[in-house]
């Protein structure tokens, strides 16, 4: 980060990225920060080994208003600097539902911790343990995605 004046949302993100919880995930190889170009951050999340599948998937987070507003994570192809194509997304019952390419044009995860999904209503009441709220941090989002990518039902791509 530079010495430029930053807003409270960017400051909150910086604090969370320095937190023990985020760093524990990095140290355990669960995720890694690739870059930040505010209000976006690229973070790679490790996946269970599957034949022909990548070791990790990248999400491009939009973080304006964080943490009062949930992040939204777009599955991202770093090499193409574009949304990850449907055929390159993780498959499986749970993770396939989360990484749906047919929802919101594939630009967000279909999960109660994602801003776009949360805005469609009902998630907070139906899944309070998984729904985003302002007391959560980015590690909460990353942990849920990591769990899905390392679940037995994850099949690869």
Would you give an account of this structure?
The chain has 157 residues and is of the alpha+beta class. It has a single domain (8-149), classed as Ubiquitin Conjugating Enzyme (Roll), CATH 3.10.110. It is built from six helices and five strands. The chain has a five-stranded antiparallel sheet with strand order 1-2-3-4-5. The longest helix has 12 residues, at 138-149. It is globular.
Tertiary shape: globular
Q: What is the percent of helical residues? A: 25-40%
CATH architecture classification:
Roll
Radius of gyration: 15 Å
Number of domains: 1
Strand order of the largest sheet: 1-2-3-4-5
Which percent band covers the strand fraction? 15-25%
CATH class category name: Alpha Beta
Alpha-beta content class: alpha+beta
Distance between the termini: 35 Å
Using the coordinates shown, work out and report the CATH topology.
Answer: Ubiquitin Conjugating Enzyme
- Low-confidence segments, ≥5 residues, pLDDT <50? none
Sheet with most strands: 5 strands, antiparallel
Mean pLDDT: 94
